[in-house]
Amino acid sequence: MNMHVAGAVAPSFDVANRLEAFAADFECDHPTLILDIDRVEEQYRGLKAGLGRAHIHYAVKANPQREVLERLIALGSHFDAASKGEVELCLSLGAQPHQVSFGNTVKRARDIAWAHEHGITLFAVDSAEEIEKVAENAPGAEVYVRLIVEMSPGDWPLSRKFGCDHDMALELLDHAREHGLKPVGFSFHVGSQTRRAEMWEPVLKVFSRTWAAALENGHDLSLLNIGGGFPAFYGEPIEAPAAYAAGVMELVESYFPNVPRVMAEPGRGMVAEAGVIVAEVMLVSRKSDRDMHRWVYLSIGRFSGLAEAEGEAIRYQFLTEKDGEAMGPCILAGPSCDSADVLYEKRPVMLPTSLKSGDKVLIRNCGAYTTTYSSVCFNGFPPLGVHIL
Amino acid sequence: MNMHVAGAVAPSFDVANRLEAFAADFECDHPTLILDIDRVEEQYRGLKAGLGRAHIHYAVKANPQREVLERLIALGSHFDAASKGEVELCLSLGAQPHQVSFGNTVKRARDIAWAHEHGITLFAVDSAEEIEKVAENAPGAEVYVRLIVEMSPGDWPLSRKFGCDHDMALELLDHAREHGLKPVGFSFHVGSQTRRAEMWEPVLKVFSRTWAAALENGHDLSLLNIGGGFPAFYGEPIEAPAAYAAGVMELVESYFPNVPRVMAEPGRGMVAEAGVIVAEVMLVSRKSDRDMHRWVYLSIGRFSGLAEAEGEAIRYQFLTEKDGEAMGPCILAGPSCDSADVLYEKRPVMLPTSLKSGDKVLIRNCGAYTTTYSSVCFNGFPPLGVHIL
User: Fold this and answer.
1) Assign residue B217 a region: left if phi > 0, alpha if psi is -120 to 50, beta otherwise?
2) In this complex, is the C-beta atom of B267 within 8 Å of any C-beta atom belonging to chain A?
C-alpha cells in the first residue's frame, strides 16, 4: 500500500489490511489499540465453520471489550468467564446464563453463589475443595474436571497451575457425584499457540483413556471441553481458522466418537488479529561504544500492554515507515524506569537502522491479552488506550 | 498480640504493629493495601537523619498515592519523577518545580518540553539522542548522566536497560555542553534491595574514577545522585534506615569529598514497610495423589499487585491466623486463569497445613510497587484497592 506521490515514493507503512492502514494514519498521545470488530466476526465465522457442532465459548479474558462481546453475542457465541466480573459483564451485555461457563478452577465461594443465583449452571473444577465449594454454593450444578496436560505441544506450554492427573480426575468425578453435583465431563488446555491441528493428537489420545475409564466407572459423561490453544499469527506460519478448527474437530471425533457436547474456548485465536497497537519510539541508544546492539525504547512495554512479551514468549511483529531501508538488530524495551521492562533481549529484533525518537511504530496482531493486562498507572504512564475502528 | 478470651486462645494474627493489627480486623471484598502514612513519615525522618546534607528525592513510582506525596511534601522531601504524569502529580499536590527531577533517561520530546514549561530544570540522560531531545525541548537545563552498574551488590540487580559506561559518560558530558546544557554530574542505581551500606563501596569506588576523569576534562561537576537501592524488610535482615543511610553517606563523603550536592532517591525504602495487603485464600489443592506440595491460590497474584514476585525476586512475608499450627511447604499462585500467574514455585512457601479457602492472609511490607503495578482488569479482577489508615 505504498502511495506514490508525484515522482517520489513517500515513506509509508507496508500495511496488510484496512485495520493497519487506519492505524498507520491514526494519531494518539499515548499507546492505543485499534480494534476491528468486523475482523472478530470474520474470525468467529471461520472458527465456527471448522468447529461445526462444537459450541464456541469465547475466552472473555483475551479481550473483554464491550464491542467485541456485543458482536459475539449477536453471532450466537457462548462465553467462558474467568471471574465473577466477567460473568457479570457477559450477562449485562445480553448473554444468556446457559451460554456462560465459569471456567476458572479457582473461584471464591461467594462468587460461585452469585453466579448460581444468576443462572450459571456450568463450572470448572480440578480439586476436592473446589467441588465442595461448588456443591455448597451452586447445589446440583454441572461440573467438568480439568485435566493437566503434561506434555504440551503449544508454543507456550502452560505451567502446572491448572488441572489434575488421570487418577485424581476419576476420584473427583466420584467426589462431585457424592456431593450432589452433575459431573458431566472433562476439560483441558493444549497450551497457548498450538500452531497446527495435528499437534492436538497426542493430548486427545491420552485423555480419551481417561474418558473411557470414567465411563467404565459408571459416569454418564456428556461434555468434552477442548479449551483454547487456537493460534494467532506472530511470524510463524499457522493454518487458517476454518481449516485448523476442522482439523482439530476431526481428531476430536476420532478419539471421542459420539460425545454429545463439545465446547471450545478460543480467546487469542478469536481476537488477536483484530487489533493493532499504535506506539512510538522514545529513544534509540547504545550503552557504550563497544555495544553490539542498539537499544530501542518504545512508548509501550511489558507493564502497559505487552505483558505477554514476558520471557520473550510471544514475539510481536513491528512495522515502521522505514522498513524498506537498512535493518539491524536491536534490544527492545519499554518506557518505564523498571529494569524488568525489557521486551526482547535474548533474541534481538530487526528494525531500521535509521529509526529514531518520535517515529511511529505499529504492532501487529495485538487484539488479545493487551488492554486489561495493562497496569493502572505504572510509573505514571496511563493504561493502553482503545479505539474501535 | 494474641488475645486471650475466657480460658481459650482465639486464633489471631501475630501482628507486629498497629498497621498489621488494623489489617487483621479489616474486611474487604477484594485485595486491599492498607497504608500507614505516619509510618512513611517515620521512615522519611530516619533516612533524612542518616543522609544528612543529601536531598531526598522520593521515587514517586514506588507509590504515587496522594496521601503519601502530601505528607512527604509537608516534610520537605523532593521527588524523582519517571514520567510527565508523575511530574504533573507532584506539582499538582504542591511540590515546587525545583524539588522535582525528571529521572527517566527515556522521555518523550513533548514531555520534556511540557516539564520545561512547568519549571523543571533537572533531567537524567544516558545517551546522545536524549541529550539532543533535552537541549531542543528544555534549552539550558541541568542534566546528569546515568552510569551503568556492571556488578550490582543488590538482591535484585538491574538489567543493562539504563546507564552508559565510563567512556561514553565522559563523551556525553561534552555532548551536553556542546548542546548548551549544563552537565552537572552523574547518577547510578546500585540495584534494588542493597541490604547493607558497606555493599555500596565497590560501586562508589568505580564511579569516583569517572568523576575524577570528568573534572580533569574540565567539567565543573556539582551533583552526585546516588539513586535508590535502600532496602525494605522481606525476611532477610537489613539495617535500620538512619544507620543504613549514615553508612552510605560516610562512603559517599569518602569517595566523593566536597561534592556540593548529593541526591538520594529512596522509593521502596521509604514506603514498603508502611503497607500491608489484606487478601484471602481462594483454594488449596493437589494435582495428583503423588504431589509433594500443596498449591495455595490467593485472591491476589502477579497481575493484581504482586508484580515483583516475577522470577521470585521479592519474597513477600505472609501472615495467617493459623501460623502457630503445623506448617508445610506449598506453591503459591494468583487467582487468574493465567498460567504465568504463579508467585513462588521454585522456592515453596511455608504455610499452615490446615489453611483453606476463605482464610484471611496478610502480606507484610507491601507499600512499594504494588498499587500502580496492578493491572486494569486482568481476567475481570479489579485492581488492588487502597485504604489509608
Assistant:
1) alpha
2) no
**Facing residues of B144 across strands?**
B124, B185
Query: Residues 76-115, chain B: which have Cβ within 8 Å of A?
Result: 81-87, 89, 103-109
The nearest CA of chain B is from the CA of A162 a distance in Å of 7
Cβ distance of B379 and A299 shorter than 8 Å: no
Question: Cβ B161–A333 below 8 Å, yes or no?
Answer: yes
| Annotated domain spans of chain A | 4-30+273-388, 37-266
For residues B158 and B173, the answer to whether their CB atoms sit within 8 Å is no
- Averaged pLDDT for residues A16-35: 96
Q: What pLDDT score does A327 carry?
A: 95
Cell of B337: 486463569
Selected from 3.30.479.10, 2.40.37.10, 1.20.1260.10, 3.40.50.300, the CATH number assigned to the domain covering A4-30+273-388 reads 2.40.37.10
Longest dimension (CA), chain B: 79
Q: Closest residue of A to B148, CA-based?
A: A287
B161 CA: distance to closest CA in chain A (Å): 6
- The number of C-alpha atoms within 13 Å of A328 and in the hemisphere containing its C-beta is 11
Which of B210, B283, B295 has the most A C-beta neighbours within 10 Å, making it the best mutation to test the interface with A?
B283
In this predicted model, what pLDDT tens digit does every residue of A310-367 receive, in sequence order? 988 899 999 999 998 999 999 999 999 999 999 999 999 999 999 999 999 999 999 9
Distance (Å, rounded) from C-alpha B331 to C-alpha B350?
Answer: 9
Q: How many CA atoms lie within 13 A of B275 on its CB side?
A: 31
Strands B360-363 and B275-285: antiparallel
Distance from C-alpha of A31 to C-alpha of A185, rounded to nearest angstrom: 43
Which pLDDT value is given to residue A293?
Answer: 86
- With cell 479457582, the residue in question is A106
| B208: its cell numbers | 569516583
Is residue A337 part of the annotated active site? The answer reads yes
Q: Is A129 part of the contact surface with chain B (CB cutoff 8 Å)?
A: yes
Q: What is the ipTM of this complex?
A: 0.93
Provide CATH code, domain A37-266: 3.20.20.10
Whether the predicted pLDDT of A5 surpasses 70: no
Query: CB neighbours of B180 closer than 8 A, spacing ≥ 6?
Result: B135, B139, B140
For residue B146 the three cell numbers come to: 546515568
Within 10 angstroms of residue B320's Cβ, the number of other Cβ atoms is 20
Q: What local confidence, expressed as pLDDT, does residue B9 receive? A: 56
- Tell me if B357 sits within 8 A of A133, measured CB to CB: yes
Summarize pLDDT for A110-157 with one digit per residue, the tens.
999 999 999 999 999 999 999 999 999 999 999 999 999 887 677 766
Per-residue model confidence (pLDDT) at position A203 = 95
List alpha helices for chain B, DSSP H: 18-25, 37-51, 66-75, 84-92, 109-117, 128-137, 166-178, 201-216, 241-255, 268-271
Residue A55's φ and ψ, nearest 5 degrees, are -80, 130
Given B129, B373, B380, which is nearest A378 (Cβ)?
B373
A163 at the B interface (CB within 8 A)?
Answer: yes
Which residues in chain B come in under a pLDDT of 70? Answer: 1-10, 152, 156-158
Bridge partners of residue A327, in order along the sequence: A352
Cα angle A22, A23, A25; round to 5: 70
Res A9: pLDDT: 55
In 3-state terms, what secondary structure has residue A92?
A: helix
Cβ contacts of A165 on chain B, cutoff 8 Å:
287-288, 290
B184 vs B372: CA distance, rounded Å:
32
Tell me the chain B residues in contact with residue A125 when contact means C-beta distances shorter than 8 Å: none
pLDDT at A7 over 50: no
